[in-house]
């Protein structure tokens, strides 16, 4: 049975005595010098991690005989990662130096022989002796430590003032064996996430999750503009107000709830999750020749965040091309859309009734009537099924399935059914 290995990283605050802090600071200084030298060499000679090992391992063993060998291995592994990120940034025109700058050094212990969790302490072997760091446990650590997850070999340690932060990585294998004819096709849009569920190659239902992220992006941009009006970003009062923003946290919270709901759909139907392939380069092309405000909205589009969160779930995720999925019907007919606004009263998770306004884009192609986001999700699912060589039955229009509305902020109960799209459009 095929399996999928998932990793989780947990940050733990650690505290040590004066002698332990002095030993770790000495190791940090040596580690930074090693990474700087190897990163500069790797950029100039286009060296790989194996080449760095051949050139620098024996040299650093002579210079720093008191450092663990696994820490030296972690240093050239760290240098190789930094150089790879630097090259990617340079290709996109985002690098402004000739070599990567090592501003913060994070100690990387590449093997579990030099560290262990024992008796409520993190023990490190440096200079031929074991030093202890006491860590403060929390719920997330206990969840993975005693929940069937195993500790990985690598440990990362970073200094924060007088204390240190240990990054523990946990791994676990999950059995993932979905039915290839069951698909949850996901189309991530600016204001909603639409999921079309196929069972046995036939469309069963369509879910529309209203996220409202575009309103959040515009509102925060306007608040940021008013705060910075006539002031420099380095102004103390401006920085204090901007720190109180929760924009990133709120947007990530909505994306996580959407990914969680899609995971539940995939597990319920034992299905594969098919999502549209949108790369960073594709987003950059979308931003070209656009106005400042529209560029900002496209840049804040969280499609890659949702895909990344789905890949971290114990489900099978497949990316397919979404070229033309929202402009052609399943029968291949081009379609144009016009706006349509639907208002309805719904009852939220708290029991309170509130109005919800949905902005739809509905179009007609012959006898078929489609909503644009629903059409995109349906075409993504059909494209995946055709890639797998399965016979997929294409629906005849939006009336073949009911699109159900859900707002992640009001709980998992469906708020309303969009069953009157065709009637109101006609």
Topology (elements, then pairings):
Elements: E1 3-15, H1 18-45, H2 49-63, H3 69-91, E2 107-109, E3 115-118, E4 121-126, E5 129-135, H4 139-145, E6 150-160, E7 163-175, E8 183-188, E9 192-199, E10 202-210, H5 213-228, H6 236-243, H7 247-269, E11 272-276, H8 280-287, H9 292-299, H10 303-311, E12 317-320, E13 338-347, E14 353-365, E15 368-371, H11 372-387, E16 403-406, E17 416-418, H12 421-425
Parallel strand pairs: 8-11, 10-16, 11-12
Antiparallel strand pairs: 1-5, 1-7, 2-6, 3-4, 4-5, 6-7, 8-9, 9-10, 13-14, 14-15, 16-17
Helix pairs in contact: 1-3, 2-3, 7-10, 8-9
Your description of this structure?
This protein is 39% helix and 29% strand. Strand 4 and strand 5 (129-135) form a beta hairpin. The model is unreliable at 397-401 and 419-426 (pLDDT under 50). The chain starts with a strand and ends with a helix. The chain has helices at residues 18-45, 49-63, 69-91, 139-145, 213-228, 236-243, 247-269, 280-287, 292-299, 303-311, 372-387, 421-425, and strands at 3-15, 107-109, 115-118, 121-126, 129-135, 150-160, 163-175, 183-188, 192-199, 202-210, 272-276, 317-320, 338-347, 353-365, 368-371, 403-406, 416-418. By secondary structure, the protein is an alpha+beta fold. It contains twelve helices and 17 strands. A seven-stranded antiparallel beta sheet has the order 2-6-7-1-5-4-3, sandwiched between helices. It has a seven-stranded mixed beta sheet with strand order 12-11-8-9-10-16-17, sandwiched between helices.
């Amino acid at each position: 049975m095929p399996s999928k290995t998932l990793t989780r990283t947990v940050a733990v605050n650690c505290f040590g005595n004066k002698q332990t802090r002095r030993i770790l600071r000495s190791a940090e200084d040596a580690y930074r010098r090693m990474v700087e030298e190897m990163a500069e060499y790797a950029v100039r000679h286009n060296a790989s991690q194996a080449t760095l090992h051949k050139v620098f391992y024996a040299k650093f063993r002579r210079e720093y005989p008191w450092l663990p060998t696994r820490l030296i291995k972690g240093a050239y592994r760290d240098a190789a990662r930094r150089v790879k990120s630097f090259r990617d940034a340079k290709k996109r025109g985002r690098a402004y130096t000739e070599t990567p700058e090592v501003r913060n050094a994070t100690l990387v212990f590449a093997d579990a022989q030099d560290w262990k969790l024992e008796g409520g302490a993190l023990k490190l072997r440096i200079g031929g002796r074991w030093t202890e760091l006491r860590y403060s446990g929390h719920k997330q650590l206990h969840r993975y430590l005693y929940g069937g997850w195993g500790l990985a070999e690598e440990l990362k340690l970073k200094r924060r003032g007088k204390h240190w932060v240990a990054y523990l990585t946990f791994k676990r294998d999950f059995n993932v064996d979905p039915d290839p004819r069951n698909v949850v096709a996901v189309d991530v849009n600016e204001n909603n996430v639409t999921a079309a569920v196929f069972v046995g190659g036939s469309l069963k239902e369509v879910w529309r999750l209203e996220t409202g992220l575009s309103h959040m992006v515009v509102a925060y941009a306007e608040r940021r503009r008013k705060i910075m009006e006539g002031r420099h970003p380095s102004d103390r009062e401006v920085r204090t107000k901007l720190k109180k923003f929760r924009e990133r946290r709120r947007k990530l919270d909505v994306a996580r709830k959407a990914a969680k709901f899609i995971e539940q759909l995939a597990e319920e139907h034992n299905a594969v999750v098919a999502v549209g392939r949108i790369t960073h380069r594709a987003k950059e092309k979308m931003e070209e020749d656009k106005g400042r405000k529209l560029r900002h909205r496209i840049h804040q589009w969280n499609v890659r965040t949702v895909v990344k969160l789905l890949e971290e779930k114990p489900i099978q995720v497949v990316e397919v091309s979404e070229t033309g999925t929202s402009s052609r019907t399943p029968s291949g007919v081009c379609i144009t859309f016009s706006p349509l606004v639907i208002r309805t009263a719904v009852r939220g998770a708290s029991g309170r009734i509130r109005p919800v306004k949905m902005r739809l884009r509905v179009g007609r192609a012959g006898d078929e009537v489609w909503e644009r986001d629903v059409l995109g999700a349906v075409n993504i699912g059909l494209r995946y099924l055709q890639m797998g060589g399965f016979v997929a039955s294409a629906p005849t229009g939006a009336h073949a399935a009911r699109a159900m509305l859900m707002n992640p902020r009001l709980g998992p109960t469906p708020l309303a059914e969009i069953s009157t799209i065709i009637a109101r459009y006609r």
